[in-house]
């Protein structure tokens, strides 16, 4: 097994989204599609009361993508055009496949401790599935498998670790999505197929990724030069490990839509205007 080396470390940028929500964004949708099949990664952490009242993401559409919300603290309330509604609480995951279209609202709320902490990942859909039926996979914290070994604790959302499978399945990108925590002095290794895009979002502590020190917060992008990932930590580290198969298709991102051609984007806008977006 050969360890993948680091290609770059992206420093998240503070951005405003929705009705004025402050986010740390490390990846955003671009036609260059460098992290194919991953389009966007946002980290929301509004832990300073001086930031004022929380605003959220009022009704907005999505087409052609999947949005994955993982909360660690606080709650996100959601409702959508299909009649679904609910809350994503600490440790819960919502894997939403927009397919041809949904309209939804996402409203974060602080926990009793005053904190809100979570991540949203956007995963692309292949051309053949962009106009598929919308689908939700809602995963309660208690049903996410926790794999513990030699000082490493893994909360497994999607993918496989030591014969254990994550609850989110049948996703076109065959993704790996897990929350990995290393206690001081531990080592984590995990096989990753060659050709799969591999990212690690480091959000607590500091670790050595293939021998290179990475401090939180930062998005580590790996080269496709090995078949496993190796992380060691003297002080302890926690990160989201994200990997998946690229689709290698042209993309045209436009706000909450990611399609393959300009015509498909124009169609999405026309469908929204004519009331045919959600059928
Ligand atoms: Fe959304």
CATH topology of the largest domain: Jelly Rolls
Distance between the termini: 48 Å
Ligands = fe (iii) ion
Mean pLDDT: 94
Main sheet record = 10 strands, antiparallel
How would you describe the shape? globular
Q: What's the level 1 CATH class of the largest domain?
A: Mainly Beta
The CATH architecture category of the largest domain equals Sandwich
**Number of helical stretches of at least 4 residues:** 1
Describe it.
With 279 residues, the protein is mainly beta. It folds into two domains: 9-143, Jelly Rolls, CATH 2.60.120; 144-248, Jelly Rolls, CATH 2.60.120. Helix content is 5%, strand content 52%. It contains one helix and 25 strands. Strands 1, 13, 14, 17, 18, 19, 20, 21, 22 and 23 form a ten-stranded antiparallel β-sheet that branches. The model has no long low-confidence stretch (mean pLDDT 94). The chain binds fe (iii) ion (FE). Fe (iii) ion binds at residues 57, 60, 62, 67, 104, 106.
Features:
ten-stranded antiparallel sheet, 25 strands, Jelly Rolls, mainly beta, globular, 279 residues, seven-stranded antiparallel sheet, binds fe (iii) ion
What's the arrangement of secondary structure elements?
Blueprint: E1 6-10, E2 13-17, E3 21-27, E4 38-45, E5 57-62, E6 65-73, E7 75-80, E8 85-88, E9 93-97, E10 102-109, E11 117-124, E12 135-139, E13 146-149, E14 152-158, E15 160-161, E16 164-165, E17 176-182, E18 186-191, E19 197-209, E20 212-215, E21 218-222, E22 228-233, E23 237-244, E24 252-254, E25 257-259, H1 262-274
Bound molecules: fe (iii) ion (FE).
The site of fe (iii) ion has 6 residues, from strand 5 and strand 10.
């Amino acid at each position: 097994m050969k360890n993948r080396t680091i290609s770059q470390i992206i420093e998240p940028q503070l951005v405003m989204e929705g009705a004025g929500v402050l986010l740390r964004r490390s990846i955003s949708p671009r036609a260059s599609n460098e992290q194919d099949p991953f389009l966007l990664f946002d980290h929301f952490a509004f832990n300073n009361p001086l930031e004022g009242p929380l605003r959220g993401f009022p009704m907005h559409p999505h087409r052609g993508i999947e949005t994955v919300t993982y909360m660690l603290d606080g709650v996100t309330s959601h409702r959508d055009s299909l009649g679904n509604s609910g809350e994503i609480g600490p440790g819960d995951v919502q894997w939403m496949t927009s397919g041809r279209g949904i309209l939804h609202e996402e409203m974060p709320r602080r926990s009793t401790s005053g904190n809100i902490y979570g991540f949203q990942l956007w995963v692309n859909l292949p051309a053949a599935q962009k106009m598929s039926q919308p689908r939700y996979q809602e995963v309660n914290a208690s049903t996410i498998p926790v794999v513990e070994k030699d000082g490493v604790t893994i909360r497994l959302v999607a993918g496989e670790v030591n014969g254990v499978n994550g609850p989110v399945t049948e996703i076109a990108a065959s993704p790996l999505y897990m929350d990995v925590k290393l206690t001081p002095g531990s080592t984590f290794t995990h096989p990753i197929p060659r050709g799969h895009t591999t990212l690690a979002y480091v959000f607590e502590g500091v670790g050595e990724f293939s021998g290179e020190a990475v401090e939180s917060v930062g998005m580590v992008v790996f080269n496709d030069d090995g078949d496993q990932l190796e992380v060691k930590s003297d002080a302890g580290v926690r990160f989201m490990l994200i990997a998946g198969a690229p689709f290698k298709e042209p993309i045209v991102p436009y706000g909450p839509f990611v399609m393959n051609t300009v015509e498909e984007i124009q169609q999405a806008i026309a469908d929204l205007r004519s009331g045919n977006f959600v059928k």
